[in-house]
Amino acid sequence: MTDSASNHDQMVARRLRVVRQAQGLSQRELARRTGVGSGTISQIESNTTQPSVAVLKKILDGIPMELATFFSFELLGGDTPVYRKSDHVDIGARGIEYRLIAAQRPNRKIQMLHEFYQPGTASGGHPLVHEGEECAVILSGVLEITVDDEVFVLRAGDAYYFNSTRPHKFKNIGDTVCEVVSACTPSF
């Protein structure tokens, strides 16, 4: 294997781990969503096997993320204290931008997102559940959040904070883009 191929394989492994964790998905949950075995996902992320394009596309469909987006963001090294807007990695889905701050930073302890929900878009059909806590401030627009079975409507200046093991989901119920800055620990 050439150094170039080896570097490409390591990049795929690292990118997949960054994207999966940023979405708050365990390997098992991603496997459930995609029909690709959790062992296969683990092997890809540990760089012991390389996925075919078809398998990688199937995995990314479970996030969801386009192949072009997966390969387009830059994985920077180092421990820089500053991340420019152009460094933020969009790990969102159709109608939602989740711009991950410092995706490239090794050993991040916080997941911070700059989120943009188009009118009518939601975080997904299934509630999210993962370890940790999360909080956010609504910068503009209207966001409906459901935690357990309780529904809340938040507007600019409102905030939320809850244990992420509680089932939760988000939806823009307004007629303009809803902008949110959120943080979650542990980092995914």
Element pattern in H and E: HHHHHEEEEEEEEE
Helix content: 25-40%
Classification by helices and strands = alpha+beta
Instruction: Name the beta content range.
Output: 25-35%
Number of helices: 5
Number of strands: 9
Contiguous low-pLDDT stretches (5 residues minimum) are none
What is the alpha-carbon Rg in Å? 17 Å
Principal-axes shape call: globular
Main sheet record? 6 strands, antiparallel
Describe this structure in words.
- The structure is a single chain.
- It is built from five helices and nine strands, in the order αααααβββββββββ.
- The strands form two sheets. A six-stranded antiparallel beta sheet has the order 1-2-3-9-4-7, with no helix packed on it.
- By secondary structure, the protein is α+β, with helices and mostly antiparallel strands.
- Helices cover 27% and strands 28% of the residues.
Short descriptors:
about 25% helix; about 190 residues; alpha+beta; 3-stranded antiparallel β-sheet; 6-stranded antiparallel β-sheet
Which helices and strands occur, and which strands form pairs?
Layout: H1 3-22, H2 27-34, H3 38-45, H4 53-61, H5 67-72, E1 89-90, E2 96-101, E3 111-117, E4 133-140, E5 142-147, E6 150-155, E7 159-163, E8 168-172, E9 178-185
Antiparallel strand pairs: 1-2, 2-3, 3-9, 4-7, 4-9, 5-6, 5-8
Helix pairs in contact: 2-3, 2-4
Brief summary:
The chain has 188 residues and is of the alpha+beta class. Helix content is 27%, strand content 28%.
